[in-house]
Write a structure and sequence with these properties.
TIM Barrel, eight-stranded parallel sheet, single chain, globular, alpha/beta, 8 helices, 34% helix, binds D-xylitol-5-phosphate, binds zinc ion
Length: 219
């Protein structure tokens, strides 16, 4: 499986509708929406009003990556705004199981993300309930960083572990993904690729196409 999830954090917000239409038309599989609270990560991005607006102009799967402290507080609002899937950070939840269960109860897909320093063992209580595990390949907070290559090993470990426990979550990676490394990361076992800079800088249609060619998929 290969899915590309362009991150709108790297879009030109003055042309957001147009650029979302371009990634959709180019055949990207999901839209990655990075929400930052200035507390869990140093940066602040955007919140529900933006998601509500773009929901009206796009049918893509909205993959909402919450980089916020105690995301359980806002899960329902993000679902109402139009999220199809919500990914929270294990490090940001005082009760991860309760948070995952709450998101599932709203009827959307649920993912858990871990930062580069966080071991996959923190997923133990929830791993059989998840639709997705997001391995951060940079420290969350900013687009345009360089992929931390040690994280590729973590993807391999997670893929092995998933098989061992017969879990069904997909493996997503986020941060510094581009044409130069997408194939290696795919071979390590990642299936869903977030890319901000590498999609939105330059020609969006060509960039999406180049990603598909780099991993050898037709659609
Ligand atoms: C980082 C965000 C990423 C980021 C990816 O905190 O979660 O989604 O926007 O951007 P690039 O692809 O530019 O590293
Ligand atoms: Zn993200």
């Amino acid at each position: 499986m290969f899915k590309l999830a362009p991150s709108i954090l790297a879009a030109d917000f003055a042309k957001l509708g147009e650029q979302i239409a371009a990634v959709e038309q180019a055949g990207a599989h999901e839209l990655h929406i990075d929400v930052m609270d200035g507390l869990f990560v140093p940066s602040i991005s955007f919140g529900m009003p933006v998601i509500e607006s773009i929901r009206k102009v796009s049918n893509m799967f909205f993959d909402v990556h919450l980089m916020i402290t105690e995301p359980i507080r806002y899960a329902e609002e993000f679902v109402k705004a139009g999220a199809d899937g919500i990914t929270v950070h294990a490090e940001a939840c005082s009760d991860l199981k309760k948070t995952v269960d709450a998101i599932k109860a709203y009827g959307v897909k649920v993912g858990v993300s871990i930062k580069p320093e966080t071991p996959i063992s923190v997923l133990a209580d929830v791993e059989l309930d998840l639709d997705r595990v997001l391995i951060m390949t940079v420290n969350p907070g900013f687009g345009g960083q360089k992929l931390i290559s040690e994280c590729i090993e973590k993807v391999k470990d997670l893929a092995k572990h998933r098989e061992k426990i017969s879990a069904t979550f997909d493996i997503q990676v986020d941060g510094g993904i581009g044409l130069a490394n997408v194939k290696t990361v795919a071979e390590a076992g990642a299936e869903v690729f977030v890319a901000g800079t590498a999609v939105f800088r330059g020609d969006i249609m060509q960039n999406v196409q180049a990603f598909k060619e780099a991993v050898g998929v037709a659609d």
